[in-house]
From TrEMBL:
<keyword id="KW-0456">Lyase</keyword>
<comment type="similarity">
    <text>Belongs to the cysteine synthase/cystathionine beta-synthase family.</text>
</comment>
<keyword id="KW-0129">CBS domain</keyword>
<comment type="pathway">
    <text>Amino-acid biosynthesis; L-cysteine biosynthesis; L-cysteine from L-homocysteine and L-serine: step 1/2.</text>
</comment>
<feature type="region of interest" description="Disordered">
    <location>
        <begin position="142"/>
        <end position="166"/>
    </location>
</feature>
<keyword id="KW-0663">Pyridoxal phosphate</keyword>
<protein>
    <recommendedName>
        <fullName>Cystathionine beta-synthase</fullName>
        <ecNumber>4.2.1.22</ecNumber>
    </recommendedName>
</protein>
Length: 333
């Protein structure tokens, strides 16, 4: 019989699929996307949850009956909740209020407790999601805070799994790797592996929301979730990407909708953002039909049905719907 012993044994090994319609007229390069929403918890964060919890157990930071406390925009929480369940830990997650209610309800469905904090406050404010989670850690006996922003097991999990999967599935023919930057764990771990495996041949490209510090912004707010920052986390090694391309919310959301409608790929806004950055890079001079771009798509669109995929929400926030018959050149202009 072919089956997994437990749901957590199904993390990783996600497939690559080629983009067709959205690349037409933009580039001759092959553009492949890696579907991280096919992980059991629905995102790339399942990978880091596994490594982070196992390392904490080994180091004695997480003991039987302990509680995992983490500020998370949702996906890391789901990954941690999955592994916590298997191992008998409790979870308390702190989310900024810009995170959709759907995503918060998913965390609750897995048995976690969720605390909501305001988005529009400085990181050092006592109300910020970083400060609130620190307070909960101090007040909860047996608490362990994975701190995905500084935990080296985040980038390590991508170095050990995501990178080798991409290298092997492309038979070493990948020329460009593109990923959004949130904690920076994905691009740091995967990018480092691919640089080493290719002797520096693979170009590593970060995608970042306009306003975020990684692409030179001030840290001002933006709507795309899970990526960009207003500070520099240690999980991110800025020496790994060769370049970081900034993408507006409007471009990210328009591409996210096109991926669903034209490619049948229902993903979140940070995925649309990464594809926009990839197409900008793939339409640059010097890119040829021999180039193979791999773009990591972190999560599913199901958590954004009330936002990115809701015309009323888009209009209310000033992101008009992509016009019918638009060309990619117009979208990326
Ligand atoms: N997209 C989404 C939806 C995310 O939740 C995250 C994680 N914050 C990212 C992208 C970025 O991944 P990383 O933290 O590894 O940079």
């Amino acid at each position: 019989m072919k089956y997994a012993e437990s749901i957590v044994d199904l993390v990783g090994g996600t497939p690559l699929v080629k983009l067709n319609r959205v690349v037409e007229g933009v580039t001759n390069a092959t553009v492949l996307v890696k579907l991280e929403y096919l992980n059991p918890g629905g995102s790339a964060k399942d990978r880091i949850a596994e490594r982070i919890i196992e390392a904490a157990e080994r180091e004695g930071k997480l003991k039987p009956g302990g509680t995992i406390v983490e500020p998370t925009s949702g996906n890391t929480g789901v990954g941690l909740a999955l592994f916590a369940q298997q191992k008998g830990y409790s979870c308390i997650f702190v989310c900024p209020d810009k995170v959709s209610e759907d995503k918060r309800n998913v965390l609750k469905a897995y048995g976690a407790e969720v605390v909501v904090t305001p988005t529009a406050v400085a990181p050092d404010s006592p109300e910020s999601y970083y400060s609130v989670s620190d307070r909960i850690v101090r007040e909860t006996p047996g608490a362990f805070k994975p701190d995905q922003y500084s935990n080296p097991n985040g980038p390590r999990s991508h170095y050990e799994t995501t990178g080798p999967e991409i290298w092997s599935d492309t038979e070493g023919r990948i020329t460009h790797f593109v990923a959004g930057i949130g904690t920076g764990g994905t691009i740091t771990g995967t990018g480092r592996y691919l640089r080493e495996a290719s002797d520096g041949r693979v170009r590593i490209i970060g995608a970042d929301p306009e306003g975020s510090v990684y692409s030179g912004g001030t840290g001002r707010p933006y709507f795309v979730e899970g990526v960009g920052e207003d500070f520099w986390p240690t999980a991110y090694d800025p020496a790994v990407p060769h370049e970081v391309i900034e993408v507006s919310d409007a471009e990210s959301f328009a591409m996210t909708r096109r991926l669903a409608r034209e490619e049948g790929i229902l993903v979140g806004g940070s995925s649309g953002m990464a594809v926009v950055a990839a197409l900008k890079a793939a339409s640059a001079p010097g890119v040829t039909a021999d180039d193979v771009f791999v773009v990591l798509l972190p999560d599913s669109g199901r958590g954004y049905l009330g936002k990115i995929f809701n015309d009323k929400w888009l209009r209310a926030y000033g992101f008009s719907n992509a016009p019918e018959g638009h060309t990619i050149a117009q979208l990326l202009a």
